[in-house]
Amino acid sequence: MEQQLLQEKRKQSETTLANIYNLPAMSTAIMEVSKLLDDPSTNTTELSRIIGKDQGMSTKILSIANSPLYGLPRKVSTIDFAILIIGYQDIKNIVVALTMVESFKNKSDKLFNQKSFWRHSVVTGAAAKRLAEDLGYRIGSEAFVGGLLHDLGIPVMHKYFHSAFEMIFNEFNEGQDTLHDIELKHLGMTHAEIGKYLASKWNLPVHLCETIENHHNPSKSIDAGVLTALVHLADYMTQKLELGEFNLDSNYQFDNNVVKTLKMDDQDIDQFIESYRNLFIEEMNSELF
């Protein structure tokens, strides 16, 4: 009976998600940017002019480019320079990811603080990119996008499943159960599954969808093991170092298989994480927030 109830709740949640497939329209500037980025003849000046039309997008791209964890070698003060130093493909990935985050944005309330969520998402993304580079994996851009979008399902729950989200939030804060189990109890699916569902609808690459789905359990990741492990480690580090105020990630359980997946067997994971403390603190204190 319990399994049947779970399946019914999941079906109801999927119906709700299907009905929000017609997402808030992308701004004209973002549509133009996507089109230009798919055109090999596009030049930096033209692309910069279009991105500049969307002030919010411009500000976020420059903030990310100047993020200490993102790791660019010099300060980036213009969109032109950001495009040159980050590269067209990475800029495209960032634009798509930022657009997704913006689409599900909701007003902050006592249950959900938009600024804290944004801070957590960007720090996780930038940290995942930095870890990828430091550990010798050439997937920094994908790691950033995976980190930025890993908790996409949470603002979606807050916006479209608000009553259930309130119960989930309260029960989690009362320590009644794990976030995973509480989400299943009320929605029949988790925020990770919701994020994956919507990422698939937006036609994100399969490995990014898989990373979003398994960021709490990277051992379950089949085709994106390294990418998922990087995002999981970055996400865990934000909690281990106690940086930020995103309390829905408290009591984060570390998947020890990450150590093997990332070939870190020769490292003490606690010392490794601690070695990043100052960089994380610098990130949290940066102008990005």
Attribute tags:
single chain; 289 residues; mainly alpha; Hypothetical protein af1432; 17 helices; 64% helix; 0% strand
List the helices and strands and how they pair.
Blueprint: H1 2-19, H2 28-37, H3 44-52, H4 55-65, H5 79-86, H6 88-103, H7 114-134, H8 140-149, H9 153-160, H10 162-173, H11 179-187, H12 191-201, H13 206-213, H14 225-240, H15 257-261, H16 269-274, H17 277-284
What report would you give on this structure?
- It is globular and about 60 Å long.
- It folds into two domains: 2-21 and 106-284, Hypothetical protein af1432, CATH 1.10.3210; 24-103, no CATH class.
- Helix 7 packs antiparallel against helix 8 (140-149) and helix 7 crosses helix 14 (225-240).
- The longest helix has 21 residues, at 114-134.
- It is an all-alpha fold and 289 residues long.
- 64% of the residues lie in helices and 0% in strands.
In short:
The protein has 289 residues and is an all-alpha fold. Helix content is 64%, strand content 0%.
> In CATH terms, what is the architecture of the largest domain?
Orthogonal Bundle
Number of strands: 0
Outline: globular
Backbone CA Rg: 19 Å
Average of pLDDT: 89
CATH class of the largest domain: Mainly Alpha
CATH-derived topology of the largest domain: Hypothetical protein af1432
